[in-house]
């Protein structure tokens, strides 16, 4: 049975690679349970007594309850807005086959090419002048940066939804908005999941934009992590405990939605 | 829905406002102000091309561009090799394939800033310890020299993004008809020949997609750069994005920073458009 033996070898290589891939997380977690001295004397050893004090201290210093709340609030509201408004735009552009809507779609798609750093300086300056350097301003910016890819995906998905559904709804007396809300938007649910996942990943992890917009009091997790880390550069036991805490929400989310996440990312990447 | 309908415009208003106010207006505003002595609030004199001419002698900026290009080229090659290998591995009939996909993809979900801090610990403490135990000098001080700092960034990026590239290749690998592979087997092709003559040409479009992605991502990297090396030692591992942020917000030279940002935009656009052109040409061929 040559092929069975071959598969066995492939499986072994795969498992070893998987362990190698996980090793940074392993090293982070194991060392987060050590005292400062233990990390210094042996990074690769197991902790003697699994100290949990690091986590308590890091949790308090990270003000984790507040930063978690800020991250969740900003991500949920931004992604909700992106999904709803991009779906509306994708619907309008797909149902209107004119040169103008073609040009508008092209405008949205080409905006994806613009690197953030090229607009960052005037953006901060302009929003600063109208006192919008706050969470509401940040959420609006996420709509501006996130809508391009989302509209593109919704526009593509609309080709699968028959126009006769719109016509039937209009005959039943619904207006355009009612048609969208009750008929089209529910049918777009699979693509909404994809759009949601893709946007959650980057908004949740974004550091640069919040660092330019929000102060330390309204910091999201990555921003707070930056301040926190600067404070503990020479104290790995606390820094690692903080990093571990910061990653927990992502790991929990991934555990519950891994199928949708991988599917969503593959759809977003291939289109 | 026609253009003349009010509803058409109402449906587009929120996203158009977002795009115009967040992307288009700042882009135009910034480009105009890069020709003045703008300080972020007001501009009094028009200086013409002064900032752009200064860029030609700005060694720090030139170094950052060179470093970014080198980093991007190396990352693209390694990431595609690694991503394709992982994709081939997890599309085999092995029991752990789903679990492995989950593991390889995981770093992508965690922000670059946090990943950079984790690897800072690994390069400084873990590599240092192993180097000491095995008496290997090269393992020590990984983030304190230019070349090891470069490879540190490459390792971090590969570990983070390989899973993403893997997902793209998986999508294309799964579209290869099984009959083709079976037919080649019957014809006596060995596994290398099957890979070279069937698998590789059929996943070539995935390479175009992932090249575009890796190129544009590695060009714009900021978080990982900031948290892993912070550009050190002596700005030698500083990438373009970081150089722009520093010029604008640490040195407070808004107009000059914006001139750099405009040049950066032009470079990224040229790369992207070349890619699209290449992509389109290829589609015609196939």
Automatic annotation (TrEMBL), chain A:
Record-annotated ABC transmembrane type-1 domain positions: 68-257
Membrane topology: Multi-pass membrane protein
Residues annotated as transmembrane: 7-29, 72-93, 105-127, 139-158, 179-204, 236-257
Compartments it resides in: Cell membrane
UniProt xrefs under SUPFAM superfamilies: MetI-like
CDD domains: TM_PBP2
Keyword NAD assigned: no
Keyword Transmembrane helix part of the UniProt annotation: yes
Main localization (coarse): membrane
Coiled coil ranges: none
Pfam family for this entry, one: BPD_transp_1
Keywords: Cell membrane, Membrane, Transmembrane, Transmembrane helix, Transport
Annotated PANTHER family: ABC TRANSPORTER PERMEASE PROTEIN MG189-RELATED (PTHR43744:SF12), ABC TRANSPORTER PERMEASE PROTEIN MG189-RELATED-RELATED (PTHR43744)
Family note: Belongs to the binding-protein-dependent transport system permease family.
Protein name stated in the entry: Carbohydrate ABC transporter permease
From TrEMBL, chain B:
Compartment(s) where it occurs, according to its Swiss-Prot or TrEMBL record: Cell membrane
The keyword Transferase is assigned to this record: no
Species annotation: Gracilibacillus salinarum
Protein name: Sugar ABC transporter permease
Main location (coarse class): membrane
Keywords: Cell membrane, Membrane, Transmembrane, Transmembrane helix, Transport
PROSITE patterns associated with the record: ABC_TM1
InterPro entries (alphabetical): MetI-like (IPR000515), MetI-like_sf (IPR035906), UgpAE/MalFG_permease (IPR050809)
CDD domains linked to this entry: TM_PBP2 (cd06261)
Lineage summary: Bacteria, Bacillati, Bacillota, Bacilli, Bacillales
Protein topology in the membrane: Multi-pass membrane protein
Pfam families (UniProt xref): BPD_transp_1 (PF00528)
Family: Belongs to the binding-protein-dependent transport system permease family.
Transmembrane segments: 7-29, 64-91, 103-128, 148-172, 202-222, 261-278
Domain of life: Bacteria
Domain (ABC transmembrane type-1): residue spans on this chain: 65-277
């Amino acid at each position: 049975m040559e092929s069975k033996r071959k598969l066995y070898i492939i499986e072994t290589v795969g498992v070893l690679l998987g362990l190698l891939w996980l090793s940074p997380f392993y090293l982070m977690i194991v060392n987060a349970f050590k005292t400062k001295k233990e990390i210094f004397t042996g990074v690769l050893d197991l902790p003697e007594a699994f100290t949990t004090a690091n986590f308590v201290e890091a949790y308090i210093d990270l003000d984790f309850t507040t930063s978690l709340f800020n991250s969740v609030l900003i991500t949920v509201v931004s992604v909700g807005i992106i999904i709803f408004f991009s779906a509306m735009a994708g619907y309008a552009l797909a149902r209107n086959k004119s040169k103008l809507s073609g040009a508008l779609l092209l405008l949205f798609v080409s905006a994806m090419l613009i690197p953030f750093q090229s607009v960052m300086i005037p953006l901060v300056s302009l929003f600063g002048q109208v006192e919008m350097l706050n969470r509401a301003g940040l959420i609006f910016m996420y709509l501006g940066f996130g809508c391009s890819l989302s509209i593109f995906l919704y526009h593509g998905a609309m080709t699968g939804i028959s126009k006769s559904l719109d016509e039937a709804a209009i005959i039943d007396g619904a207006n355009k908005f009612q048609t969208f809300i009750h008929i089209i938007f529910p049918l777009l649910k699979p693509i909404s999941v994809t759009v949601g996942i893709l946007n959650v990943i980057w908004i949740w992890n974004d550091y640069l934009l919040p660092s330019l917009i929000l102060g330390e009091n309204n910091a999201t997790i990555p921003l707070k992590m930056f301040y926190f880390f600067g404070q503990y550069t020479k104290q790995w036991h606390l820094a690692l405990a903080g990093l571990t805490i910061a990653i927990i929400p992502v790991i929990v989310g991934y555990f519950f939605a891994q199928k949708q996440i991988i599917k969503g990312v593959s759809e977003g990447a291939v289109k | 829905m026609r253009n003349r309908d009010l509803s058409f415009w109402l449906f587009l208003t929120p996203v158009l406002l977002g795009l115009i106010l967040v992307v288009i207006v700042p882009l135009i505003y910034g480009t105009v102000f890069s020709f003045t002595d703008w300080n972020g609030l007001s501009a009094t004199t028009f200086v013409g091309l002064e900032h752009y001419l200064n860029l030609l002698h700005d060694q720090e900026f030139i170094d950052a561009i060179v470093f970014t290009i080198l980093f991007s080229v190396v990352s693209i090659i390694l990431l595609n090799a690694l991503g394709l290998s992982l994709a081939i591995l997890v599309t085999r009939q092995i029991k752990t394939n789903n679990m492995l996909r989950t593991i390889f993809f995981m770093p992508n979900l965690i922000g670059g800033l946090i990943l950079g801090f984790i690897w800072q610990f690994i390069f400084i403490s873990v590599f240092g310890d192993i180097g000491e135990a095995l008496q290997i000098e090269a393992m020590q001080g990984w983030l304190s020299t230019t070349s090891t700092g470069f490879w540190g960034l490459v390792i971090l990026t590969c570990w983070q993004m390989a899973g993403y590239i893997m997902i793209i290749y998986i999508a294309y690998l799964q579209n290869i008809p099984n009959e083709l592979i079976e037919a080649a087997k019957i014809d006596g092709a060995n596994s290398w020949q099957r890979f070279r003559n069937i698998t590789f040409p059929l996943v070539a479009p995935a390479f175009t997609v992932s090249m575009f992605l890796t190129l544009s991502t590695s060009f714009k990297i900021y978080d990982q750069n900031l948290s892993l090396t912070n550009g050190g030692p002596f700005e030698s591992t500083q990438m373009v994005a970081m150089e722009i942020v520093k010029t604008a917000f640490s040195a407070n030279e808004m107009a000059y920073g914006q001139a750099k940002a405009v040049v950066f935009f032009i470079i990224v656009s040229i790369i992207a458009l070349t890619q699209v052109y290449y992509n389109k040409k290829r589609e015609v061929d196939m």
